[in-house]
Amino acid sequence: MTDVIRGITEADWPQVAALEAGAYAGTPLTEGEAGLRSRASAGTSFVLDLDGRVAGYVLALPYPMFGCPDLTRPERTAHRSPNLHLHDLVIGAPLRRRGLGSRLVRHLTHAAGARGHRTISLVAVAGKEAFWRANGYRPHPEARLPAGYGDDAVYMSARVAAGAHRRAG
User: Fold this and answer.
1) Can you tell me the distance from the alpha carbon of 9 to that of 79, in angstroms, rounded to the nearest whole number?
2) What's phi and psi for 20, nearest 5 deg?
């Protein structure tokens, strides 16, 4: 098996949308392809390509600290911010718990550092707060979140270490 983390191409979007639909089935968190596309920035959104198929993805975009996209509509504003918001990370069900999600997080962190971002924020949903804590993120209970993220959603952030772009991902 060969895997590579690479930028998202036009041909990847149907597979990205299918992974998202599978990961969030039965929840109000599913956004569909248009919503996902609107939250992907070049240079900070990637797929995990496993033998030519998309096995996972991470979508991130510059966004002001303590803010997050509204899940009910596509993003229409391009923000400039020292903060990068990790909007979504999904690994296909059969490949979970193999360190691939953490690998995507490291890759994104290096890309964020290379682009000059100082922090990465996210909203932990569906009970994933422990995963994000294990990857160096800390909660901000004071942050107000839109209702669409769910009652157990937690806003979290991590600093991007100086020189993060120089280490291999």
Assistant:
1) 22
2) -65, -45
**What is the Cα–Cα distance from 130 to 155, expressed in whole angstroms?**
13
Residue written as token pair 């690994």: 91
Gap between the Cα atoms of 159 and 14, Å rounded: 32
Any idea what DSSP says for residue 148? G
DSSP helix/strand/coil, 27: coil
Question: What's the farthest any 2 CA atoms get from each other in the chain?
Answer: 44
Q: How far apart are CA 17 and CA 59, in angstroms?
A: 12
pLDDT, tens digit, 9 for 90 and up, residues 23-82: 999 888 999 999 999 999 888 999 999 988 999 999 999 999 999 998 888 888 888 899
Residue 21 to residues 28, 123, 153, Cα–Cα distance (Å): 10, 18, 19
Torsion of CA 145, 147, 149, 150, to 10 degrees: 120
Query: Rounded to whole angstroms, how far apart are CA atoms 165 and 111?
Result: 6
* Total-model pTM: 0.90
